[in-house]
Specification:
about 450 residues, mainly alpha, Cytochrome Bc1 Complex, Chain D, domain 2, two-stranded antiparallel ribbon, about 25% helix, binds heme C
């Protein structure tokens, strides 16, 4: 049944316009979220970052904030409430082509480095940077981008954006932190905006380390038998081998050693998503890393995708081996960040895990006519790993993981959600910002994340 539904979803082309969860402007809702956050622990610069992050007046037209696509109640994901796996911008017909990733646990992301990760066999891999293709080196660089991206906040340039902030309710606070004359130089002011947002993103709010997993690592809580089995399957190379890329150090009492990503780039060979409006054009293919144009080559106040690199500069050496590769995301808070993967293909966590186990044993479950890697031109298929677990299987072999083992891994992934309450503890203050926020009753309730639980259908 499930396989039929997935296939039907893939082959039917969506009539325009794609559905949204709801269509009410966000600004009042977003402001109520910002008000709900305990700001006492934040420095003035971080508070400014918070105000900017939640300000729905900074888009063109107004109504869209960073928090619209990065909703704190969903670990800073949410795609502006679309149901198609990718985000909707400030204009009602402008959709992006990628799923908005979580902004949690990004603070220690290394800069992009073409050969920065050395694997056990000596192979060198690209690592680091922000975005699915690593085109921004730092959170500061990243933060200058969405304001000017036409399918996101759509401002024409830095002066337009800065004028909005200078007229806004926290303009005084901005001057206090960055100097009385800050609004006079839009490029400098844009740097200040980016620095404020990045400072906010580096606070404990975004990396609280308060999941059950963290308490277990610190010796304050214990896994159930199923969670413990899931952790083993997750780490053992001959089973899930997930930890090869989604780093975990279960022997360390320091949860910071377990960020569930090594920031490396890999090609998973995901199915093409028919839900993405731009995919109606067969010529459009998101090749990920090999199309990366570094943000540093963009003019201030212009998004990188539109930036022409200065004459004589090649953005990235022509590198076919980088095509189809995307950044490994953290799996912290994964149960509340649906949909999954760069193209938002999976609505359910269990499906994302089952894909690893059955991509190569039962390709017909995921690809029309069972033709693998239908979102990647054939000349790049060799970039997809088919030799290491969990991918080393062939059609009609037994999958690397049984149904029960997939359930065990999903049960373990449930322990990665922040805001765990220790049994018997009475918390006077919420442990995370996500907890601090009570979903508003009106005007704009966000949809509950798609149900995906260990109890979801027990089939591949
Ligand atoms: C219209 C929806 C939308 C808005 C508004 C938006 N983002 Fe994003 N964000 C995305 C998407 C989609 C991506 C992934 C894009 C890519 O990889 O090319 C992303 C990626 C990011 C990343 C990179 C995360 C990582 O894993 O490297 C950061 C950081 C981020 N956004 C912060 C912000 C900030 C700060 C703002 C406000 C200034 C903002 N976003 C506004 C949709 C949005
Ligand atoms: C070879 C490296 C590698 C291995 C092994 C691996 N992953 Fe991943 N994982 C990735 C990459 C890369 C992505 C993002 C791919 C994309 O979107 O194109 C990803 C994405 C995911 C996502 C979606 C995350 C999100 O926020 O959208 C989940 C869930 C996931 N992996 C779980 C697992 C599990 C469970 C295992 C073990 C069965 C596993 N992974 C093994 C590299 C790996």
């Amino acid at each position: 049944m499930l396989a039929v539904a997935v296939l039907a979803g893939m082959v039917s082309f969506m009539p325009a316009p794609p559905p949204r969860a709801q269509d009410i402007p966000h600004d009042r809702f977003i402001n109520s979220l910002a008000d709900a956050i305990d700001q006492t622990a934040l420095t003035p610069r971080e508070q400014l970052g918070l105000r900017l992050f939640f300000d729905a007046n900074l888009s063109e037209p107004a109504g869209l904030a960073c928090a619209s696509c990065h909703d704190p109640r969903r670990a800073f994901t949410g795609n502006n409430n679309t149901l198609i796996g990718v985000a909707l911008g400030s204009r009602s017909d402008q959709f992006g082509t990628r799923d908005a990733p979580t902004l949690m646990y990004l603070a220690t992301t290394p800069r992009f480095n073409r050969n920065g990760l050395v694997e056990k066999d000596g192979k060198r891999l690209p690592v680091g940077g922000h975005f699915w293709d690593g085109r921004a080196d730092t959170l500061e660089e990243q933060a200058t981008q969405p304001f000017f991206n036409p399918v996101e906040m759509n401002n024409a340039d830095a002066p337009v954006l800065i004028a909005k902030i200078a007229k806004g309710s926290y303009a005084g606070a901005f001057r206090k932190v960055w100097g009385e004359a800050i609004f006079e130089n839009p490029d400098k002011a844009l740097d200040a905006v980016a620095a404020s947002i990045a400072a906010f993103e580096r606070t404990r709010v975004f990396q609280p380390f308060t999941s059950k997993f963290d308490y277990v690592m610190r010796g304050q809580a214990a896994f159930t038998e199923q969670e413990q089995r899931g952790l083993s399957l997750f780490t053992i190379r001959q089973k899930g081998n997930c930890a090869q890329c989604h780093t975990v150090d279960a022997a360390s009492r320091d949860p910071q050693k377990s960020l569930f990503t090594d920031f490396s780039y890999r090609a998973l060979g995901l199915p093409r998503s028919a839900r993405i409006p731009k995919n109606a054009d067969p010529a459009f293919i998101d090749l990920g890393l090999c199309e990366r144009v570094p943000v540093s080559l963009a003019k201030p106040g212009k998004p990188a995708p539109d930036a022409k690199p200065p004459a004589g500069v090649t953005p990235l050496p022509e590198d076919p081996a980088a095509c189809g590769l995307f950044k490994t995301p953290t799996l912290r808070n994964i149960t509340i960040t649906a949909p999954y993967m760069h193209n938002g293909f999976f609505d359910h966590l269990r499906d994302a895990v089952a894909f690893y186990a059955t991509r190569d044993t039962d390709p017909a479950r995921w690809f029309p006519d069972g033709k693998k890697f239908n979102d990647l031109p054939a000349r790049y298929h060799a970039n997809v790993d088919v030799d290491t677990p969990p991918y080393q299987r062939r059609p009609n072999q037994r999958p690397q993981l049984t149904n029960e083992e997939i359930d065990d891994i999903v049960a373990f992934l449930y322990t990665l959600t922040d805001g765990y309450t220790l049994p018997g503890s009475k918390r006077s203050k919420p442990a995370t910002m996500t907890d601090a926020i009570t979903p508003p009753r009106s005007p704009n309730p966000s949809p509950s994340p798609p149900a995906s639980s260990p109890a979801s259908p027990r089939e591949y």
